[in-house]
Every structure is written in C-alpha cells, then in structure tokens.
Write a structure and sequence with these properties.
Layout (H helix, E strand, L loop, with lengths): L2 H8 L2 H6 L5 E3 L2 E4 L12 E4 L4 E4 L5 E3 L1 H9 L3 H12 L8 H30 L1 H13 L4 H6 L3 E3 L5 H8 L4 H6 L3 E3 L6 E3 L4 E7 L5 E8 L8 E3 L15 H11 L2 E4 L2 H9 L5 E2 L8 H8 L4 E5 L2 H4 L1 H8 L16 H11 L2 E4 L8 H7 L1 H9 L2 E2 H10 L7 H16 L4 H15 L3 H4 L2 H34 L2 H18 L3 H11 L13 H13 L7 H8 L11 H4 L6 H31 L11 H23 L6
Parallel strand pairs: 12-13, 12-14, 14-15
Antiparallel strand pairs: 1-2, 2-3, 3-4, 4-5, 6-9, 7-8, 9-10, 10-11, 15-16
Helix pairs in contact: 1-4, 5-6, 11-16, 16-17, 18-19, 18-20, 19-20, 22-28, 23-25, 23-28, 24-28, 25-26, 28-29
Zinc ion binds next to loops.
C-alpha cells in the first residue's frame, strides 16, 4: 500500500468532513449543507462512506475524495494536503529525493534573505532621515495609518547604488544568492553589482502561505523609470503565479465570498484600511490563468475594479477576437471578457465589472468615503452587460450593419451562459439595446432545440423510477470504491504513457456528443494531480510528454511509474490504446452518472424530511442533464469504438 492508499484507509471520510460540516445520516450516506457555496436551505452536500467520496449537487456540482476535500477547503496544493493528512493519519512520509531536498533548502534560504532585506528596507523607512519624508508621503498624501504601514510591512530602499549590496555582503551572503533572489544586478559596463531597488517605496510580496517571494517598488522621483519595478523572475518570484495581498486577504475573501481585483499595491492597501479587506492585485499584468485558479480556491465571485483604460473598450474588443475553440482542451482561464465568460460558464462564477469615476483610483475613493466605494461595488455590472454596453457605447444603433455586428459578437457569449433564466434575461437585454425582436436574434435551430427539450421532459421523469431501482441493485453488487479508483488509475496510466492520445480521445468523445476529457473525470486527489500534469504536458514542447510528467510528478506519486509498463505493452497499436481509453472513460462516467441520478432522486423524494422545495427546479434540470448524458454514454458504449 502506498502512502495515499494508507491515508485513505486510515482516515474516515465522515469523521474528517464532520469537522467542518454538520452531517446527518440518510440511509447509507450522509447529507449536509455544502461548505463551499452559501446556501442554508438545501442540504445538497452528500458524503458516501462506501466509496470514500463526497459531492455537492448544488451550485458547486463537484466532488472528490478526502484529498480533494482538504485541497478545496484549505486552498492547498497536493503536497501540502498530503503532509497534513499523513500527519493526521499518523503516517511518516518517505523523505524527499536528495536533489529536491537541496532545491527546497535553497529556496528557503533565498526566502530568508528576502526576509532580512525586508528588515533592512523597513529600518530605512522608519529610522532614517530620508525615510521620514517617505513616511510622511505615505501618511499624508496616501492617507495610510501607521498600523496599515505596519500590516503591509512597507519599506524604503535608500538611493545609494550599493547600500544593500554592502549590507548583505557583510551579513555573509554570496553574490550568487543575492542575484538569485533578485536584490542585486550585475553591472554591464564594469565589474561588480548594484542594488536593484534604489530610492523607492518597497512592497513585500508574499505568497498565499505568507512565504516571502519578492518585492514591488514604486519610484519616488518622477525621473526614475519605470514607476513600478518588481523583483525579476527568480526561483521564488513568478509574477504570473502571485497575487499581491492574497496572504492577508484570502481569509476575508472566503468570508465575504467575493474578491475585488484592483490594479495596484496602493489600491489593495487603501481598500484594506477602509474595511474592504478582500482585494488583490495582479501587479500590473493582465490576470493570468494561474492567478485565476489561485482565486478560485477562495471564491467564485469576482469584481473587476480596473482602470477604465485596461478593462475598457480596447481590451474588450480585443478580447472578443480570441477564438473560442482554443479552450477546448483545457480548464484554463484566459483573462479577457470573452474568456471570463467562458470561465463563468464553466464554473458558474459570477464575474462583474465596476466602473470607476474618471481619473480616480479605488484606494482614493474608498479612503475618502467608504460608502461611495460600497455603492460602486454594488453597481458592478455582470460581464455580459458590460460587454453589451461597451460595444454599443457611442454607436449609431439604428444602423443595421452596427446591429448585426454587435449581435454577432454578443450572441455566442449569451449562448455560453449555463443558467437558462439568466440567458433569457441577457437575450432580452440585447434585443432591447439593439431595438430588435428577440426571436430574430437567435437561430431557428436553437428554438427548435429548446421546444424539443421541453417535450421530452415528462418522458425522462417517468424513466427515472425504473432506472433508480436498477441502479440500486447495480450499486450493491459493485465494490464501487476500488472500482472507481482502479478505473481512474488505468485511465491516468494510459495517458501518462501516451499523453498525445488525449487528442484522439477527445475527437472520439466529440463524435459521440460527449464532453472532452477534463480534470473532473478523475476525482481522486492524487490521480487528479497526474491528469493535470498530463494535460499540461501537451502545452509544452521542451520535453517528451512522459518525461515532462515524470519530472513534475510529486515525490509521493512516483510509485505510479512502476505500473506504467503493465498498461501499455510494446507494440500495442494506437487503435487498441484508444479503445482501452475510451472504454475506461465511458465506464467511469457511467458509474458516476448513475450515482448522480440515484442521489438526485433520493434528494427529491417526498419522504426525505429535508426535502428540497425551493431548489426543486435546479435538481430537476440536473436530473434531466444526467439522464441525457447517460443515454449518450450508453449509445457510445454500444457502438463500435474504432473504424467507420
Ligand atoms: Zn456546493
């Protein structure tokens, strides 16, 4: 048994989840209110002790094992979660490889040097003569309290060329270490080094776990360019993977279930001081997919409060050009209005844009009057509304050409919205703005599709009873827990060996009107990590796929490699592998969809005392979708896999 299996066998999922969620027994399973979305009416969260899994049938529509639960709850990555659960289970993890250990130790050392540098910068702000005027700038001009300055650990880099370098050499750090953590830069014209940050206000940048990663620095003199300078890319500092402020705001973000995205350091700090402790900044770049994923751990409600220039018309129009097909193979986020809507569709995320009064920054507004800022947030528009407004602003909407141009851009976005009620509202809105009849905005085929869907509804409801009994029997016969894990493992091992087969698999799925392979097909936390790597390996060209995955595999998952040779033998044809992949995935999805249908049916039964009244429609839709999916799966299973 490897560590992961050992942990799963030792920790009881009901005990573990009971620490967070009040669970009630419902037959063999347990139900409760989902801890990941706010709803105190519908106990849509179900724990299945038999399979060692959980699932939210409400808003989240997500599930997994104990690893997934802790990762989602704490916002940790896999190794962190593993350490935590191993400790809980009383298991001592095998030591890291010597190379990895060395790397970790070096990163720790660099982070320690940055902590020392921070003391140096803070000393210069608080104790030195020049620092006093900077401090006055922060308190008088920026209206920051000493407490806030303390909380955000602001500092000042003196304006000498070698103050820092000399100081750190005396501390015993080598030039290499100082370069590696981005504090000094090699001179190009002569020997020696100079300080990267000179005569600047210093903002320490920590990751979500409070580890020091680098600095942001604002120029004090208008002659110094650029105005904002960051640490260079280092082992610790990867601008695309950090959000400024998250170390302090992640808890409030989760508590208020909302994150505000602002442009700059001062915006985060000023809002924090004014009582809005849920802002983060992507530090001058557009939001990256990694940053979006970081945020997603804490909330799905995001308000963009960006400078009108960057979130405004130009960016909106440019974003609309991005091809929608580019997202087919990944769950990645792309930051442009178009991409955000796709994200919204996938995640059920609520993304809004607020408009700032011309020439004013969020911190200025909030520090002057928190009520004004609150109002601005409340008036934030859903992103589709924002796109409609932006595209139609200043245009002659009586011109048929303009109308059709705008419609051709917005209609596809509206079609992506998952919620039918919202979709209708956006349609009406667009029709109103363009002064056209709503029906003529949308294609005939789609209207037909909708009416067909409605007439099928009753038939599907009738079907579900028989299916329920059949499924119950099926479930009792299967050692389901092992079966799911083994299917997931088989799938992951096949793709580990042949990552590029993802494309063939997706093509096959598409042919059968099924969703492409995604992370949610594998719900065991450990195996999901590998699937993520497999999908990532396809987006790089430096290494052979298998090698890339192997190199990036967390230490505790290397045991998987020893099983690789058993799944794909020398000389196995591509067709056979595809067949194996498809069969495994279909089986996995079938088990899952059956489980879903069964549980949705239970949740709707009148004798269930926690009967869902208000969200019945939601469950009905879910059930219809699930039954539809099952039909497609069965059809695919019964038709020949390869050929024709
Ligand atoms: Zn939920």
């Amino acid at each position: 048994m490897n560590n992961i299996e050992e942990i799963k066998s030792r920790i009881d999922i009901v005990d573990l989840i009971s620490e967070t969620v009040k669970l009630r027994r419902a037959g063999k399973n347990y139900t409760g209110f989902c801890p990941f979305h706010s709803n105190t009416r519908t106990p849509a969260f179900v724990v299945f002790p038999d399979s060692g899994t959980w699932r939210c049938f409400g808003e989240c529509n997500e599930g997994g094992d104990i690893f997934r639960f802790i990762m989602k709850k704490e916002g940790w990555d896999f190794p962190e979660t593993l350490r935590y659960l191993a400790n809980k289970a009383g298991i001592i993890l095998e030591p890291l490889t010597p190379k990895k250990k060395e790397e970790n130790a070096y990163e720790e050392k660099l982070s320690g040097i940055l902590e020392e540098a921070l003391i140096f910068f803070r000393h210069h702000l608080m104790q030195n003569e020049k620092g006093k005027s900077v401090l006055a700038y922060l308190t008088d001009k920026r209206k920051l309290s000493l407490k806030t300055i303390e909380t955000f650990e602001l500092g000042f880099a003196p304006d000498g060329w070698e103050d820092g370098w000399t100081y750190f050499q005396n501390k015993g750090y080598s030039e290499k270490e100082l370069v590696d953590c981005g504090l000094i830069t090699k001179r190009s014209e002569k020997e020696g080094f100079y300080d990267r940050f000179r005569n600047r206000i210093i903002f320490p940048i920590r990751d979500a776990n409070q580890r020091m990663c680098g600095f942001g620095a604002r120029a004090l003199s208008s002659e110094d360019n650029p105005k904002y300078l960051n640490s260079p890319q280092t082992l610790l500092f990867d601008k695309s993977a950090l959000l400024y402020g998250l170390d302090k705001t992640r808890k409030p973000i989760r508590t208020v279930d909302q994150a505000i995205i602002v442009e700059g350091y001062f915006d985060v700090i000023g809002l924090y001081q004014s009582g809005f402790q849920n802002a983060v900044s992507p530090m001058g770049t557009a939001l990256t997919p990694i940053q979006m994923r970081l945020l997603k751990r804490y909330t799905r409600k995001i308000i963009l409060a960006l400078d009108p220039d960057s979130a405004g018309e130009k960016a909106t129009l440019k974003g609309l050009e991005v091809a929608r097909d580019s997202m087919d193979h990944s769950d990645d986020f792309i930051f442009d209005p178009k991409g955000l809507i796709r994200t919204e569709a996938r995640l059920d995320a609520d993304i809004r844009v607020c408009s700032l009064p011309d020439g004013k920054d969020p911190d200025e507004i909030a520090l002057e009057n928190p009520e004004t800022w609150k109002m601005i947030l409340e008036q934030a528009k859903p992103i589709i509304t924002h796109v409609i407004d932006t595209l139609s602003a200043g245009k002659n909407l009586d011109d048929p050409k303009t109308k059709s141009e705008i419609a051709s851009k917005v209609v596809p976005l509206i079609k992506d919205v998952p919620n039918a009620v919202e979709r209708d509202a956006y349609r009406q809105q667009l029709a109103r703005v363009l002064h056209i009849d709503e029906q003529s905005l949308f294609s005939i085929s789609e209207v037909q599709y909708i009416s067909r869907g409605r007439s099928r509804r009753q038939k599907i409801e009738k079907e579900s009873d028989d299916e329920f009994i059949k499924d119950q029997l099926e479930m009792q016969l299967l050692p389901i827990k092992n079966k799911i894990y083994n299917l997931e493992k088989h799938l992951v091992l096949l793709l580990f060996k042949k990552p590029e087969m993802v494309y063939d698999l997706d093509r096959y799925l598409k042919k059968n009107s099924l969703f492409p392979l995604s992370n949610s097909d594998v719900e065991s936390g450990d195996l999901q990590v590998v699937l993520t790597l497999i999908l990532k390996s396809l987006q790089q060209v430096d290494l052979d796929g298998e090698e890339f995955i192997s190199n990036n595999l967390p230490d505790d998952l290397h045991w998987l490699e020893s099983e690789l040779e058993q799944v794909v033998h020398e000389g196995t044809t591509q067709d056979r592998i595809l067949e194996d992949l498809a069969r495994t995935l279909l089986m996995l999805r079938k088990i899952r969809v059956n489980e879903k249908i069964k549980n949705l049916t239970i949740l709707q039964q009148p004798e269930n005392e926690e009967k869902i009244v208000s969200d019945n429609a939601l469950f009905q839709n879910e059930l219809m979708d699930a039954i539809k999916t099952r039909l497609l799966l069965e059809k695919a299973q019964s038709s020949p896999l390869i050929g024709d």
